[in-house]
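Homework help board

Subject: predicted structure for assignment chain

Our instructor gave us this sequence and asked us to write out the predicted structure in token form, then describe one feature. I got the tokens but I'm not sure how to describe them. Can anyone check?
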Amino acid sequence: MFYFRKLKKKMIIILSPAKTMHVPLTAPALSTVPVFGKEARDICNEVKNLSFSDFSRLLKVSGGLARQAYDTMQQWIWPHDPKIASAAALMYDGPAFKGLNAHDFSRGELEFAQLHLRILSGLYGVLRPYDQILPYRLEAQTPVSVRDQRNLYSFWNSHPAKNIEADLRKLKSNLLINLTSDEYGKMIIPHISANVRIINVAFKEMKAGKPFINVVEMKKARGMMSRFIIQNRITDVESLTAFDLSGYYFERKLSDENNFTFLRG
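My token output:
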């Protein structure tokens, strides 16, 4: 048995990006510049220097997808032209961002999201939802060497985590809701200070009486949970357990104080 700490504390949610990106048709009312734009420029410059074959090998893509991704990275430039850059939360188009559905946020929800949601990125490090970005194809685990660092994890080191901790201090909070994949969690979790409480959230399906992970549905649920927090202005841990979208429910038997499991089916 475990008990919730019923202190009301603002929180920051961390979410993985998506491989799929589309430029949205409309622009949001809020527009900000990525914190680590210059670092993203240095990464992209290294990628631009790769041959097409080396690029394809590093990203493990081929054919038309490889050519499209290569051309996209060649067209990337910093500073971004505001006429062609778009908000991160609207440009990412994978399952998590379909679940988030930031396109219909009210002004109040948009502002809450900007304070409380952070999107991790192999290229940009960490993004606020309405940071203006350009399309790209680069994952955190891509083994590209930048500034003599062997990969992007080494390059980013603790910088994204320190940025998030600074934002937590502004909120007078020490609560981090982890809705990332392992790939992106590795950018942040190992570098977070011990005084920050991390809540890891898992979403599983029931099949033949046993819980299992449906990867696509899990990603979508992460986005839905983010939306749930934003729309309900949640500021305490216990309220997270009320999440019940798409048939999910909090399973206390599979949870503990810092690891929450939601089931459905």
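Reply (TA_rk): Your tokens look well-formed. For the description, you could write something like this. The longest strand covers residues 197-207. That's the kind of observation they're looking for.
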